[in-house]
Amino acid sequence: MTRVRIAVVSAGLSQPSSTRLLAERLAAATETELTAAGAEVELDFVDLRDHARALADNLLTGFPAPSLREAIERVVTADGIVAVTPIFSASYSGLFKTFFDVLEPDSLIGMPVLAGATGGTERHSLALEHAVRPLFAYLRAIVAPTSVYAASADWGATWAGHGLDDRIRRAAEEFAGLLLGRSAARPADPFTTPTSFEDLLAGNTN
Asked: NCBIfam families, alphabetically (predicted)?
């Protein structure tokens, strides 16, 4: 049986949070799709609000606190990431950006990502395309074609084919497809089986 671990990263500031709620719904829909395909799924939630001070300290010192280091490790070693941010001033939140700023530059190469965002008005919906998607493209992650934005008016809306539930379902189907295609194909950690110094000198890096 295929085993898939998904890191669910939420940058919601309040508790409870609509950002965390959207992250949960995206993760649950993905789990449904993967389970139907015969996969065993583990959802690993990472709430960035719990690491806000540690993230600021990391920016200043260059070193993560133990709790932040553990959270980073859980994210970069996952099979895929659900990443959801609130939208402030037409872009992702500072907390969300800071977390991805402190990751090692190549740690998300080939990582499947399902992006989501929340906001008070529909006017910010394109922030996913002009801010969040380019961020993950820069990190060389693989972002699902459908990203999900939830404005305040979307919660409870039931427009046929265009409601929040429909968008979540479509995004989860695409993300599950990426995960099933990538779960056994992510590049191995080079530090697990490092190349010896002699082989490096000889040019043998395989």
From this structure: LLM_duo_CE1759
- Spatial contact of 23 and 9, defined as CB atoms under 8 Å apart: yes
Tens of pLDDT along the chain (206 residues)?
789 999 999 999 988 899 999 999 999 999 999 999 999 999 999 999 999 999 999 999 999 999 999 999 999 999 999 999 999 988 999 999 999 999 998 999 999 999 999 998 888 889 999 999 999 999 999 999 999 999 988 886 554 446 899 999 999 999 999 999 865 445 555 544 556 666 656 666 55
Packed helices 52-61 and 94-101: angle between N→C axes, nearest 10 degrees: 50
What is the reported pTM? 0.85
